[in-house]
Amino acid sequence: MLEVAQIFKRHFNSPPVHVVRAPGRLELLGNHTDYNDGLVMALAVDKYIEMAATPRNDGKIELVSSSFSGKEIFSANDFKKNPAAPWADYVKGVLAQLHQRGVHFNGFSAAVHGTIPMGAGMSSSAALEVATALLVRKLHPYALTEIGLAPAPQPNAKGAVPSPTHAEKLNLAKLCRAAEHEFVGVKVGLLDQISSLFGKASHVMDIDFRALTVELSPMPGEAIIVCNSGVKHSLVEDGYNELRENCEGAAKKLGATSLRSVDLKTLTASKSKLTDREYQCAYHVVSEIQRVVFAERALREDDHQQFGQYMFQSHESSRDFLKNSVPELDLLVELARKHPACLGARLTGGGFGGATINLVRHHQAPDFMAHMAREYEKSSGHKTQPILCQIVDGAA
Description:
alpha+beta, Alpha-Beta Plaits, seven-stranded mixed beta sheet
């Protein structure tokens, strides 16, 4: 039994009817390129948000979480923020979007349990959004189209609702993004939600955010290790929206629909049209999209050493141009670079804290993890416990 089912039983005195889980994600390469119609290489990893639920007939929704004390109770058709339970905003935002789209659902009791480190840049918030959307789909089957609702999926002989189609997953991702835009207040792209829904074990997702396509490529057998800086980020409070505004402002001044349509030569020639900050953000994004193209080729050619160099270059660009790194992340990358087993390292996620992702020769992973824990504490005074991540299937 999943731990979330045990938590549910402890709180509600009965086993849950439905359980779902959605993985967190790591962005292997492609920092802040998703909302610029760019390219990203992403992984779904074995750290999850799990939700367990049972329907109720009083029109109330009751939420409990293993990570937060107390409970959150609200009406199934009235979604208001509660400053005492900000974690529930991600659930409420999704429910509000479903309600707007005509999805009918009644009350339910639900427990939430997470193994994704909060504030580490591994998208625990998007995983919670995806889990909420899929949980409601099990409780009250629905299917989304681009403009509304499709005929509801019919449960099979065992009462199980079929998995969403590829097109439905894209629409679920867009719904979850809308929840974060409109309810939480962060203008995120689609990377986190798509990664949680489309992940495949042992594969990297090559995501094109202009065409909205997801291609899967086998991931080499190197170890993926996450090192948490211990600096928690909050995209609501940090500079995420400011970065997006600068990128969109730069594209507009350059006469482009997005920075995906701009090359480095054009950008450099048009520098005088932009503010310094717009140019810096645009330079990072345009060069990062180019790095993803080169890195995909390196992976196809089995050139892991070159792939790792693109990761190091990506971090340097995030640090120097996008300016979404912090000293602790820079330290982690430099410590990783000094270990002979490390092929590449960079910050992952929105930045402003969080974690680094490290591509490490598999047989030397334990030594690398010990090195990072020892040297980071020695250099910063803070502890980190490196996490070896497995690449897994998407939400179910």
